[in-house]
Write a structure and sequence with these properties.
- This protein is mostly helical.
- It contains six helices and four strands, in the order ααααβαβββα.
- Helix content is 35%, strand content 7%.
- The strands form two sheets. A two-stranded antiparallel sheet has the order 1-4.
- α2 crosses α3.
Length: 190
């Protein structure tokens, strides 16, 4: 019995050392600019930028294969941050991306849900729970508000509900308000 335990312990030690050596020897370095760009993106994985996710869009930006204004969920704030990082001039947002919308999450009216699973298949972040022919629900903390679940729903039982503004998700100045530096600049006549 002790011989078997010792043999397993030696094998575990040998495999652990082999894996440790392999992770150091064959380490693949990521592109640091791609990681910086990806950190600025909203991580909705919605595909509205015409790329399969935020990482693919970040790679395209790093390789100068995409414009900095293609992220509707990120809006103008993300576009300006990308312009600063990449040393490019800001490009005005167009179409749906230009609309500043409050952050929202999907909410399924469960009494109307027929359990078709089309919304589950459309959700890029697996924020919808349910099974065929049973009601579905959205995991509020996982929903990125990409709205990709709305078009496939045959009974239109999904609503986008704006998130309450709290200390975890506020953006200042709020729409319609001014930043104090704007007030000071106006008061001083600049």
């Amino acid at each position: 019995m002790l011989i078997a335990i010792a043999a397993i312990a030696l094998l575990a030690l040998a495999f652990g050392l082999l894996l440790g050596y392999s992770s150091i020897r064959f380490q693949v370095e990521g592109d640091p600019i791609v990681e910086k760009i990806e950190a600025l993106l909203p991580q909705t994985q919605c595909g509205q930028c015409n790329f399969p996710g935020c990482h693919a869009y970040a790679e395209a930006l790093a390789n100068d294969e995409a414009e900095i204004n293609a992220c509707p969920p990120g809006g103008e704030t993300t576009m300006i941050a990308l312009a600063d990082l990449l040393g490019k001039d800001p490009i005005p947002l167009e179409g749906a991306a230009a609309e500043e919308k409050p952050k929202a999450v999907a909410v399924i009216r469960e009494n109307e849900c027929i359990g078709c699973t089309l919304c589950i298949q459309a959700c890029p972040v697996d924020a919808i729970l349910g099974s065929a022919k049973h009601m579905h629900t959205v995991i509020r903390g996982e929903c990125t508000g990409c709205e990709l679940c709305l078009p496939p729903c045959p009974v239109e039982c999904i609503d986008m509900v704006p998130l309450e503004v709290n200390t975890g998700n506020w953006k200042w100045p709020f729409p319609g308000e001014t930043h104090p530096s704007d007030t000071l600049a106006t008061a001083s006549g600049s």
